[in-house]
Design brief:
two-stranded antiparallel sheet; 11 helices
Length: 290
């Protein structure tokens, strides 16, 4: 019981990182219908861009975070246009596109290892102090991660609910053919979806590394299944469900570490995922439009 509150604190940090990634993953899928299994490796690319800016140019880590977001935003749009669109025009099915993105992720991971080597890297910054709150302990950087996640989730909510772009995204998620017939510029909205997804991948990769302190070419790929678990748990293609799924997965994985070995903590999240798929395969928030 003494460990419960601290692990809940760890779970909130993990959930915040996971929410950034899962929302980016599922938002892009809801608009384009493409399951991007290169998402984890793209997160790693964002982390390396931030690291290069931080250690190579000796700039602040948060400047590196912005650089990683911008790079991944543009790279994701290019990935869609040059890699995926030729397959989509040939009417490649969902499974085929999944394989394409999976293969691209492997190429990215191996390219990173060839360029930077297999060794772990870390950002250069002054250690942050710790803050106690309701029996939980956070570093300042962890509090920033939580606040960032909350702000980004509110921005995503505002985008989807109160802007023409968000309404167009929701229309495409519901019925792409009808959205096109209604005059929605599908290609432009698709680019925006990949742009936002890429930016969130870059930010998620950065905060993941900021929390774990070190990273290697395989870091993001190892986080991919947890992202998918959160997305599926909340209802695939539903950003609001991804937020809820991230919170559940984040808390369950960390709290379960008080009962089972820490290296096996992700197993608990997948057990819950399997139960949800059996009892409510449409996800926990399937009724919410996202």
């Amino acid at each position: 019981m003494d460990l419960l509150l601290p692990t809940i604190g760890f779970g909130l940090v993990t959930a915040s990182i996971l929410a950034l990634a899962a929302v980016g993953f599922t938002l892009q899928f809801s608009v384009t219908g493409v399951v991007n299994f290169a998402f984890g490796d793209l997160m790693t690319v964002g982390a390396y861009v931030a690291w290069l800016v931080n250690t190579g140019l000796h700039w602040n880590i948060w400047v590196g975070a912005v650089a990683g977001m911008l790079f991944l935003a543009v790279a994701s749009v290019i990935m869609n246009r040059l890699l995926l669109q030729p397959f989509i025009r040939k009417r490649t099915d969902l499974f085929g596109l999944l394989i394409v993105t999976f293969a691209f992720g492997l190429i990215v991971e191996n390219a990173l290892q060839a360029i930077f080597g297999p060794n772990y890297q870390s950002y250069t910054y002054s250690p942050s102090s710790s803050v106690g709150f309701l029996g939980m302990t956070f570093t300042v950087n962890q509090l920033i991660i939580i606040v960032l996640a909350v702000i980004v989730m509110l921005l995503v909510h505002g985008l989807l609910r109160y802007t023409k772009v968000g309404k167009a995204m929701r229309a495409m998620a519901d019925d792409p053919a009808l959205a096109r017939a209604c005059g929605i510029k599908v290609a432009r909205i698709t680019d925006l979806a990949w742009l936002i997804s890429g930016a969130l991948a870059g930010l998620a990769g950065f905060v993941l590394v900021l929390n774990t302190a070190a990273f290697a070419p395989s870091t993001g790929e190892g986080f991919l299944l947890v992202i998918v678990a959160a997305a599926v748990l909340g209802g695939v293609g539903r950003p609001y469900g991804a937020m809820a799924g991230a919170l559940i997965v984040g808390l369950v994985t960390e709290v379960s570490a008080t009962i089972i070995p820490a290296e096996d903590k992700s197993v608990a999240a997948f057990v819950i995922l399997i139960l949800v798929l059996l009892l409510r395969p449409q996800g926990i928030i399937a009724a919410a439009r996202g």
